[in-house]
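Researcher: Structure for this, please.
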Amino acid sequence: MKRTLTRSLPRLAALALCATGLRPDAAAAADWVDFSGDISVGANSIQDNAFMSRVDAMLTFTLFDVADSPVAFEFGTFGYYYKGDRPHETYAAFVYDDRFRLGVVKPAYDRVLISPFDFTAASIAETRAEYTRARATTEALRFNSVPVGVSYGDTTGDTSWAVSLLDASDGNFRSAAGSAEWRAQAMTFAAAIEGVWDPKDHFDGINAKIGARWQEGRLDIGAAFLHPDANQRPDAVAFDVNYNVWRDLTLSGFGEVTRDSTTSAYGLAARYDFADRSDVSFAVTDTTTDEEVHFTYTRRY
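Model: Predicted structure, token format:
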């Protein structure tokens, strides 16, 4: 049974406010405060959850420098918000040189190969988070777990990579994850793996995914193999095909196809992009239980 999220945020918010006090020059705020991520609000044809928001955003405060590298504090969230529930994970961590993080950090597994439903059909993405998200994330969404640990990430040339180690005593699991992404002209290759253990260090399975994307002219095609074993979901193949038909209008087809097809999901969408890094999309999705219509506005920062 899904538990209702009751975790409050005042302590983490207080940490963020304390962090801002270390750099009191308000006139220079643009130099030491950064907001990044995306926020989506939308409506759909689901009777119980007709309105849903999705947030994946981070607020970063640069505090001081050590050995010519910045030390910062970041505070953010990833989650879904709708009537009667708000499953989410809250991040709060100290950051050194934008590479090393300590605290409630985002797992490395979530950096690549996110569900094609995320920006067009949040209500579907929320119910299917286990297919593409880390166990560290889904435990926070479903059961209020707070994984604490470290992460390290860097970019070298055309390759980006990250690793993370997390422990959630309240969720009774430990997680070690890694991800990498390599860009080569029109192609992008990505992979991620997460191992999960219980508190007694008994192995509890792995989540893994590997995929590629090809972008050339008006066409953008992506595909990935998903192995969400630690999340107790069947293997799946995710795909999305996007074609820019006219100026800022893009048509898409996407889906996640499971091995036995009993939990597959598909979608068609039309998206219009605005100059301010925002867009609106209209999508129709089909799962084994329902056909739904979605309208979404997304703003990226």
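Researcher: Any notable elements?
Model: Residues 10-300 form a domain with the Porin fold (CATH 2.40.160.10). The mean pLDDT is 89.
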